[in-house]
Structures are given as structure tokens and as C-alpha cells.
Amino acid sequence: xxxxxxxxxxxLTLVSGSAIAADLGRPAPAPVFTxxxxxVPVFTWTGFYIGGNIGAAWAQHNWTDSVLLVNFNxxxxxxxxxxxxxxxxxxxxxxxxxxxxxxxxxxxNNNSNNTGIVVPSLANHLIAVTANDKWIATLAARFGxxxxxxxxxxxxxxxxxxxxSLTVTDLTANVSIxxxxxxxxRSGWLVGAGVEWAFANNWTVKAEYDYIGLSNRSFTVPxxxxxxxxxxxxxSGTNNVQMATxxxxxxxxGGRY
Length: 257
Hints:
Layout: H1 2-25, E1 43-44, E2 47-65, E3 71-73, E4 80-93, E5 96-107, E6 113-119, E7 125-130, E8 133-147, E9 150-163, E10 166-170, E11 175-179, E12 185-200, E13 203-214, E14 218-220, E15 232-252, E16 255-256
Antiparallel strand pairs: 1-16, 2-3, 2-4, 2-15, 4-5, 5-8, 6-7, 7-10, 8-9, 9-12, 10-11, 12-13, 13-15, 14-15
């Protein structure tokens, strides 16, 4: 019995050792590779864009003259409707965005002082000065900081404002003088700021405020006019346009990458 037990133990040991030896000689299983997850897409503002805008503008043009010595404030502080479009391009590096933008807007024709001013030196006649701004064009650089789909930016550059001819009206006598000033298109400088939000990969909306400081205009009443011959009207003091607009842009090449 003892010999039988020893024989069984020996056989079991031999079998186990053979199995272990076989396992040691077997090549390790090949590693299993899983596909890496795709990178998280990042929104970029880089690309050209085109869009439209609407809003309001406030003009301040103070006219003084050389004969009556009266300040005709050609602004009732009434907002006028403006509407137009813009085109530009952005380039983003890190979270900074730089770009260039041009805009053009038409302005409604109700920015004049039509109530008139009583002029004692002219027998208390009521005199009104009319010179409406008709369009506004700008070309400016934009500098911004992007937080994914939200862009805060400032802008600065040049601006041009086109006005119709200056008209001086004696409302009491019902006579008027109309003529071109030295420059119906005035140039100036622009500063502004705004915020833009990409609500889709290629569509953005924005809100913006701009201040335009303008050059002066002058107009001399010609010979043969019914009144104020030789009088020169000149803009003086603050001569500016302020704009508040909202707009929408289509961004070519923008989106998530």
C-alpha cells in the first residue's frame, strides 16, 4: 500500500512538472490594443465672414456762422435707423483673435434740427440748418479674446460719413438756401467694442457699439442768395456719430476641428 501511494505521488508530481514546463515554454498572448479616443474638437474663429446688421445712430453736428454768430445744433439726440452689412476676416492663435472688418450702412433721414432757432439780429426770424447723414462706412482692425464660442473684441480704424447738401432755411420768410459744403463726405476715426457668439459652427451673432469722430465741414452762402450772402457756416466743437448695432455673420472655414 505504501509503495502504491509513493508511486501515485511520483506520477502526480511528474505530470504537474510537465504541465508547468509546458506553460513556461508557451509564448505570451499578444497584447490587445484598443482604438484611442478621438481628440476633443476645438472651435476656431479663423476664416473670412460676411453678414448684415441693423441698429441706431446718433449724430452730433454743431454749426456756427460768421454773420449771425449763432450755434445751430444740428442734432435732436434722436436715434435714426441704420442698416447694412459687413465683411471681414479673423485669425486665431491660442485664445487671441485678430482681424480686419469693413462695414457699410444706410442711415434714415431724420437727424436734422427742423424746429429752427430764433435769431434776434435777423428780426427774430426762425432759422433752421439741415444736413442729414445718409450713409456710414468704416474700415477697422479687430482685436479680441475668445472663450471657445464667445469672442470679446475691440476695434479701431477709420470711418467715412456721407451727408446730403447743407440747407439753411428762413422758416419765417419761407425761403431757403441749399448748396454743397467743402466736403459732403467727411472722414474720421473710429473706436468700438463688441461681443460675438457662435451659435453654430459657421453662424455667429454680435452686438457692437462704435464712436466716430469726424472732420469739419464748411459752407459759404453764395452771391445771389435771398439772404445771408457771404455768411459762412462751419461745424465746430463736437462733431461725431455714435452707433449701436446687432448683426449676424456667416463664417467661412470656421467651426470645430
